[in-house]
Structures are given as structure tokens and as C-alpha cells.
Design a protein that fits this description.
CATH class of the largest domain: Alpha Beta
Largest sheet: 7 strands, mixed
Number of domains: 2
Helix content: 25-40%
CATH architecture of the largest domain: 3-Layer(aba) Sandwich
Bound molecules: nicotinamide-adenine-dinucleotide
CATH superfamily of the largest domain: Aldehyde Dehydrogenase, Chain A, domain 1
């Protein structure tokens, strides 16, 4: 407790042991003065505390956002572009500090935070800062009778709620388009990984973002998150998280006719045909299975393999998975870090036990791994590979969101498709084949919003991002995000 942040030296600041909310341009303690523990999952150390805010803080944030909206909504796009780029620059300048904070909160390897999470957060701001400079709206002429033109106006005060797996990356993926489009924001990061969102509030102050334009309220889901969703002044909700919470949000928002964008869970198939580029496939499949300890909504947790290469795949994949021993996230040689929390660690281990009860055979991993040195109390789980389970068992139907994958063989393309689509989820899918016609046929029939062929997690921020079925409602990315955060208004002028 009381840990200073010697690495956070950009403004010569040390972060407090207690994180603060960012409301109306100021850092503020929660009104109820309640806090939640903030634990480093790689060490077990409670190293700071995060506000356990409630509806009173959310109301204060909404009021601040409402007050800022009149000016921000008509601030010229050039000025929004400048400010958002300034925030991006400050994120880049503080890469080391932000990456370390992300790793201490989340347990992911520091090299991953540096290479992926923090650079993507600044890219999100740059991408939407630039995007807003290129917006054009439609006009519909009615010969010599009339002209219609469509305005795209900001929605007002909007809510952005994000999860713990890619904390700053996903938080900024929502905030950046919302601000770029001229909205004011009440945002809540996951209470499990709040530190980089707190550091972002310091960056926004340094960047000169006008007070109230962005408000960051920290707290738990059922109280603070639910208060954002239920607040009548907050007109749209952009949410990324579990399908369970997504259902509750949809139920609250529907009778209030709020716009919602829900990016939810996944149980993604990774379909491997015998004619794939073997080396690239096996290398990438290892990443798509276990990156970020399998805690990416896009990880391919159900690996479907053509029968003729099943044994070869199993032998090589299991051998490679066994080499991915988790270790101290601060060590550059650690390919795997800790899972995010004790709650999640217990859940993942219970899922592995369930898979065995269901008749699955554990080929690799299957157990917790004891850390050493400062990580002796860390939450490490060995990358786990399971075979022998049917498509409809709980292990293959329910999201685990950890370093656990299952293997299932298939004989024909039709069977592969049937297995792939045996899921209530439909977020992403990966297809491995050298046959372009087959890749296209299968891509057309897989019920997922995002399909990768012979690659994984190759992201173009302009593309629509989101899922079918229980994986969500709406799309993020590119114009989809800017459309979500604006209301179209048609103006018809008779000539
Ligand atoms: P979660 O649903 O428990 O929490 C997500 C966020 O919502 C947190 O900030 C939490 O405090 C808040 N929250 C929880 N209940 C709420 C409620 N009733 N009302 C309002 N807010 C509430 O999810 P998590 O455990 O943080 O994240 C893991 C989940 O997120 C997985 O299911 C994963 O697949 C999903 N995810 C999806 C995507 C995607 O793009 N589709 C990306 C990343 C993670």
C-alpha cells in the first residue's frame, strides 16, 4: 500500500495510493469515500485502491458532461483533431509508464503492453482525430422540387464501459470516436484494471481537454456501471464485456430507447484444413490460442482440424504449448503472464475441471503454475489443450476466456461448418486453407462478424468490428463508430 510510481516521471508525479475519479476536469475522491482493492495478479500484492463510486458520482459526471456539451459539440473539428492528437502524443511519450501500469494491473507481459496495448491506445485517438476531419454527409436532390441534406449531430452525453482484458486499448477505442464526434463522455474502466484509465485522466488534464468533456468514474459494474446505463441524461451506451452484463444493459436501456453498442463474449472457431501453410498456421494458432493468457475476445478457443492432419497437429501444437511456461510479466522472456484476478483464476481452473468431468483429456497444462521470487503468490495457469469432447458440451459452448483450447477433428467442409456454427456466440473465426474458393465459401457460411483467412488479429481500424448472435449488437470501428456516436437529421428544403 502507499506505493509511489517512480516510473511515472513524465510530469514528475508519483501516483497516489488511491486512484481518483476525473469529473469536471478535476481529480476527485468518490463521494461515498469507499474504495476497492487494486491487486497485482502476478504478485498478489494489493498495491493501490480504486474508487467504489456509485450513482452520486455518476450524476456529478453526467452534470459536468452536460455542462460541457454546448461548447464541445460546436468546437470546430480542427480543434477536436488537435486535442485528440495531443492526447495521443502524450500517450506515446509515456509509453513506458503506461505499459508498466497496465502490466501491474492486468498481469500481461510487459513486452506485450509496450508492443500492443499502449501503442494501440494512441492509435485509437489518432485514427478518430483524423477520421473526424474527413466526415462528409449525404444529400438527396429531388430534381427541381427540393433538396435533402443529412446532418450528423453528436448524440449528447454518452456512456462508455470497458473490460479488463485490454484495459486502455478498449477504453480509448470507445472514448476516442465519442469525443471526435462531439459528444461528452462518462466513462468507466473495469474496476479490476483501473490504473491506465486514471493515468489517462492526468494526460487529458495536461493536454488541455476542456473540463467535463471526458469524465472517468471508477467503480464496480452492478453499482457504478449500472448507474451509467440507467441515468436518463446519458443517451447512448457503448459497452464491451460479458454477454451476461450485456443482457442486463440491454434490458435497462431498451425502455429508455437508448442507443446501445454491445461487444460481448466469444467462443471462436479456428478451422484448419489439411492444405494450409503449416508453419504459419501452427505459429499463429499458438498465438490465437494463448496470447494475453487467452484473455482476448478474439482468441480461437475451439480448434477444428481436418482429420487427415489431426494427429500431426496435436503432436506439434501440444509440444509448443508446453513450452509456453508462464513467468514474471516483467521478464522479457516470459511468453505468458498471470491471469487477471483470483476470481478469474478460480473460474478458469473450474472450467478445466469441468472439461475433465465431461470426459475431456488434458494433453497439455491443465493446472496452476507456481511462480517464483516476487511472483510466488501470482495467478499463473499453464496453457491448456484438451481433446475428446463433443461440440455441445459446456466446455465447447461456454466462454472460458483463459489459456484453454479444445481440439475437435472434422472430415468434411460441411462438418467443419456445422461444428463452427454450433455456438450461441458469433464474434470471430479463423480459416486456414490455401484454396481461395474454399476460404470464400467457408467465410460466407460461418456465423461470425469477423473472419480471418490465413491470419489472426490483423486489424484495420476502418473495418466493422463486432459479432453475431450472443456476441453483441452493433459494430465499432471506422465510420460505424462515428455513426453510432451521431444522430442523423434530415433537412428537406423545397426549392
Ligand atoms: P464484465 O461484463 O464483467 O465487465 C465489463 C465492464 O462492465 C466492467 O467495467 C464492469 O465493471 C462493467 N459491468 C459489469 N456489470 C455491469 C452492469 N450490470 N451494468 C453496467 N456495467 C457493468 O466483463 P469482464 O469480465 O470485464 O470482461 C470479459 C468479457 O468481456 C468476456 O466475456 C469477453 O469476451 C468480453 N470482451 C468482449 C470484447 C469484444 O470486443 N466483443 C472485447 C473484450 C472483452
Amino acid at each position: 500500500m502507499g506505493l509511489a510510481f517512480p516510473y511515472f516521471c513524465w510530469m514528475n508525479l508519483s501516483a497516489p495510493a488511491q486512484i481518483a475519479n476525473y469529473i469536471g476536469g478535476k481529480l476527485q475522491a468518490p463521494l461515498n469515500n469507499r474504495y476497492l482493492p487494486n491487486v497485482n495478479p502476478a504478485t498478489g500484492e494489493e498495491y493501490s485502491q480504486t474508487p467504489d463510486s456509485d450513482h452520486a458520482d455518476v450524476s456529478a459526471a453526467e452534470e459536468a458532461a452536460r455542462g460541457a456539451f454546448a461548447a464541445w459539440s460546436v468546437t470546430p473539428a480542427e480543434e477536436r483533431f488537435r486535442l485528440l492528437n495531443r492526447i495521443a502524443d502524450l500517450i506515446d511519450q509515456n509509453l513506458e509508464a503506461l505499459a508498466l501500469a497496465e502490466t501491474n494491473d492486468n498481469g500481461k507481459p510487459l513486452w506485450l503492453s509496450k508492443r500492443v496495448d499502449i501503442p494501440r491506445a494512441s492509435s485509437n485517438f489518432r485514427f478518430f482525430a483524423t477520421g473526424i476531419m474527413h466526415v462528409s454527409t449525404e444529400s438527396h436532390g429531388m430534381e427541381d422540387k427540393a433538396i435533402n441534406y443529412t446532418l450528423r449531430q453528436p448524440v449528447g452525453v454518452v456512456g462508455c464501459i470497458s473490460p479488463w482484458n485490454l484495459p486502455l486499448y478498449l477504453f480509448t477505442w470507445k472514448i476516442a470516436p465519442a469525443l471526435a464526434a462531439g459528444n461528452c463522455v462518462v466513462a468507466k474502466p473495469s474496476e479490476v484494471t483501473p490504473m491506465t484509465a486514471y493515468l489517462l485522466s492526468l494526460i487529458c488534464i495536461e493536454a488541455g481537454l476542456p473540463a467535463g468533456v471526458l469524465n472517468i468514474v471508477h467503480g464496480g459494474g452492478p453499482e457504478c456501471g449500472a448507474a451509467i446505463v440507467a441515468h436518463p441524461g446519458i443517451k447512448a451506451i457503448s459497452f464491451t464485456g460479458s454477454t451476461r452484463a450485456g443482457k442486463q444493459i440491454a434490458a435497462t436501456a431498451a425502455p429508455m430507447f437508448k442507443k446501445i453498442s454491445l461487444e460481448l463474449g466469444g467462443k471462436n472457431p479456428n478451422i484448419i484444413f489439411a492444405d494450409c501453410d503449416w508453419e504459419k498456421m501452427i505459429r499463429t494458432t499458438l498465438q490465437s490460442s494463448f496470447s494475453n493468457q487467452g484473455q482476448i475476445c478474439l482468441c480461437g478457443s475451439r480448434i477444428l482440424i481436418e482429420e487427415s492432419i489431426y494427429e500431426k497437429f496435436k503432436t506439434e501444437f501440444v509440444a509448443r504449448a508446453r513450452k509456453l511456461t508462464p513467468g514474471d510479466p516483467l521478464d522479457d522472456n516470459s511468453k505468458q503472464g498471470a491471469v487477471v484476478s483470483k476470481l478469474h483464476y478460480d473460474k478458469v481452473l473450474a472450467c478445466i475441471a469441468l472439461a475433465q468431468e465431461e470426459g475431456g483429456t488434458v494433453l497439455a497444462g491443465g493446472q496452476a503454475v507456481k511462480g517464483s521470487g516476487r511472483c510466488a503468490d501470482g495467478l499463473f495457469i499453464a496453457p491448456t489443450v484438451i481433446e475428446g469432447l463433443g461440440a455441445n458440451c459446456r466446455t465447447n459452448m461456454e466462454e472460458i476466456f483463459g489459456p484453454v483450447v479444445t481440439l475437435q477433428p472434422f472430415k468434411t467442409e460441411d462438418e467443419a461448418l456445422q461444428l463452427a456454427n454450433t455456438s450461441d456466440y458469433g464474434l470471430s473465426a479463423t480459416i486456414w486453407t490455401q484454396d481461395v474458393s474454399r476460404a470464400n465459401r467457408v467465410a460466407m457460411k460461418v456465423q461470425s462478424g469477423i473472419i480471418w483467412v490465413n491470419c489472426w488479429l490483423l486489424r484495420d481500424l476502418r473495418t466493422p468490428f463486432g459479432g453475431f448472435k450472443n456476441s453483441g449488437v452493433g459494430r465499432e470501428g471506422g465510420w460505424d463508430a462515428l455513426r453510432f456516436f451521431t444522430e442523423p437529421k434530415n433537412v428537406c428544403i423545397e426549392l
